[in-house]
Amino acid sequence: MEKSKTHYRNVFKSDHLGVADLEDMIENGKPLIFEVTEVRQEFNVAVAGRKGNHNIAYFKGGHKPLVLNATNSKIMKKFAGNSPFVEDWKSKLIELYIDPNVTMKGEKVGGVRIRPVQPTIAKPELTLNHKRWEDAKTAIKSGKKEAVLKQFTISDDNLKLLEA
Fold this sequence. Notes:
The protein is an alpha+beta fold. The chain is built from five helices and seven strands.
């Protein structure tokens, strides 16, 4: 009977998202798009075995948080209309990737980066047959047209029907 094998990455697991976590997600076919719920400045927190002060992004869906280095913080700032305040960085969609060229102490070690272009998620199209048609019609009649348009793509003809 063969003993089960141990993957080398098991020892690289941490409380924060890292290359090993993204590699696992890629291998399992999971998307690397995350919605930031908040970013907090945390002081004297342990990251990679060392205590320090860090900006840490938390995500919807129970994913591990991401420690934002200077490079990733600059991208978050850009996504928030150039706001340098971490409180303005919530509710942003980001896509992560593994950058093999990240160096530490002069050695290429790879690292987690935020893609410099924000991802967009296609909105579903609202048609007469859609299960939310009546809800949308009610919302539009009660003055919530913008909320409906944020949620759905609606053709001009269908929008006229909803407003009628």
